Amino acid sequence: MVRRLSQLHLVSSALAVSLVSLTLLSYGTSVYINRQLNQANQRLNRLQRSEQQLTTANEVLKNHLAHQVEAPEMGFQPPQPGSVIFLKPTPQAAASAQGPASVVNRFALPKVDVPLGY
């Protein structure tokens, strides 16, 4: 009887030690994961703030350039129809641009005989 009790005590002690170890391990893992998530969240917030600042700076620069172009002393003029260059596509370039016949027929655009403007 004493022998069984000592075996039961040994097994229960080993079980208690393993449960405490698992509890400490799971607690340590959860704390580590929480710290990593907090750091990643802070990094994400910094990146989002940077993105907003860059977007704002980009829009301010665009606005500034638009105002500069509108100023008469800059000498910019809207494009004139006489200064546009018109090119006709070559027949070989038009033929190579077409894919297989089934794809071309399915997505075919109406042919317009108008030169391209550049």
Question: How would you describe this protein?
Answer:
The protein has 3 helices and 2 strands. The chain is elongated, with a radius of gyration of 37 Å. With 118 residues, the protein is mainly α. The chain has one domain (2-117).
Summarize the SSE layout with pairings.
Elements: H1 2-70, E1 86-87, H2 91-97, H3 101-106, E2 116-117
Largest sheet: 2 strands, antiparallel
Structural class: mainly alpha
Quote the distance from N terminus to C terminus. 102 Å
How big a fraction of the residues is strand?
under 5%
What count of structural domains?
Answer: 1
Mean pLDDT figure = 83
Number of helices: 3
Number of strands: 2
The gyration radius over C-alpha positions equals: 37 Å
Task: List the helices and strands in order.
Answer: HEHHE
Q: Quick one: overall form?
A: elongated
Low-confidence stretches are none
Order of adjacent strands in the largest pleated sheet? 1-2
Give helix % range: 55-70%
Q: Based on the structure, what is the oligomeric state of the protein chains?
A: single chain
Keywords:
single chain; 118 residues; mainly alpha; 2 strands; 3% strand; elongated
